[in-house]
Write a structure and sequence with these properties.
mainly beta; 60 strands
Length: 655
Amino acid sequence: MKSITFILTLLTIGLCQAQSNFEKVLPSLVNNNYDVEQTSDGGYVLGGAVLTKTNTVGDTLWTRRHFPVGQTTFITGVTQTTDGGYAYVLSDKPDTIWHCTFVKTNSTGDTTFTKKYGGALESYGWDILQTTDGGYLVTGTLFLSPTDYRIYVVKTDVSGNEVWNYTHSITSQTYSNSVVEIPGNKYVIAGQSNNDATLIKLDNTGVPVWTKTHGEPTLLELARGLSTTSAGGFVYTGWQYDVTNSTGSSYLVKTDADGDTLWTRNETQSWGGNLEGYGFDTKELSNGDIMMIGSRGISVINNQIQYGNLFITYFNGSGTKLTSQSSCTNTNTGTAIAPTSDGGYVLSGGLGGTALLIKLDANLCVYATDTITLMNTGSPNLFCANSGFSLQVPTNSCNQVLWDNGSTNDMTSYNPPNNNPGSYYVTLTNNFGCSINDTIVLDTFITTIPVITSTTGDTTFCQGDSLILYTGNWNSYWWSPGAAIDDTNIVYTGGNYTVQVTDANGCYINSAPFVVTVNPLPTPNISLQPNNDLVSSAVTGNQWYLNGVLIPGATNQSYTPTVTGTYTVEVTDANGCVGISPPYVLTTVGINKHQLLSDVFSYTNGRLTVHKGVWQLYDMTGRMVLNGSTGSYVIPVGIYILHTEMGANRIAHIK
């Protein structure tokens, strides 16, 4: 595994700028790219459905289409020219036949000239390079007849005018990324002839120096994605197909400088089984290893190849498979590899699917730009105290995650809730086998615990009453028990009341319990005593009523009624709670049965004589008209009620 360690900040943009590597999904217009090359400004040029120029991080700057849609094939070879412009090759069909077509543009992609080759014969264009003499070499396929097609090479001057051409001697064809220039202004072209992978070396005048074929007698092989090796030899990839069993395999061949085979590898040799792969391009790396890119899981339908998923495979210089990778974004077919100025490589992919541009650094890595994210908080490194937190990497990441607690759950929370402040560490390993580390240092928000008070300052109330609880100014509230959601809560029952609030940081904070007590109401009862007094069951706090009207001064436990009627007593207890007795209906009043009338008073000739104690005389409305003590008194004519201290009551008719 290739790895590198960083202590990352949460500034993802800064990481992207520091590392010139990426995996970029290209706009839908920029599709079916067969070739890619780094440009002198550090950006990239791609050839596919359109000619595309990007900046250094793969963002599209412009696209150019120089022919009507449907008139041409895709651009299959592209290169930046020494004047800062671009040259590309494709197949153009303006009439009834296809033409191998070379287009030269300026630095902004506008056409400088267009050249067609092959004369009256049908031809396809496949690859192009600018030669060391300033001219160009164009490769393609020339059709001598509908069934007789040949590898076709055209050498031009700087203006695209043909200098010489070469047509292979037997039926054959070539492909994209399949020509290299070697010292001495000589050229090697890869392709297929007589169902064998084929290399052709031409001198600087187009005369063949040698032709070499590679393959098994019973199998079909083709060569494409040709590159040179540090030893002066060649390496190419391609396809090996078993027509009898309808099974295909990616194919890799390394040769010496004369094109003679050093070794070959198919999938059975490298993987132990057939994966239905197809190789598109190769490059020898600075350490002598070999990178191969292509498509895996292909099929052949009606003699047409249907491509599968992009793959990247590495071999050592002896042909031993080292590792195989895929892109993070699912797409089909890796099509081209080109070296970059920083010692890395740029790869294109996506035929008929999502188009990708992948930049690998010198370690063959696309390092993740993902960082740990603290979720559900308004701050990048603060979380809510006592509420736990969640640490995640982006959900669209293809990285494998290893937290410092050993958790390998990809893109899931880090041990919530109730974690502590401190440093948390994660290792992210992506599809390219490249790892980075990220550390986040967390602390808690400063929070204030909400306090519950009552608007009256009380913690108790009487049964049937209520208490208003208050907790101050917060962003949101949730009272319990109950469902109040503002700063006050009116309660009617006792219990432990709490409130959960959120502050300006979005932190949830719980108050301490506020204990509310509900005092019961007193339940007094009235009873009639033998001396005809009415007595409350409450010793204190009494107030007597007659027929619902308060009796002034009647606040003792007992009351001596002077008239019949409905009596109640209201009792206020030590908690200030008030209770009303059931009504007591009194129908008679009179002297104590144990007292004789003559013992209490006598009345003769308008004179009242009280024999014992103090007394009060009331008229029939209950108004006291006279009072006194033992003695004889003149009483006006009328009907009265006499009350003595002995509790004797009698209606006296005094006339």
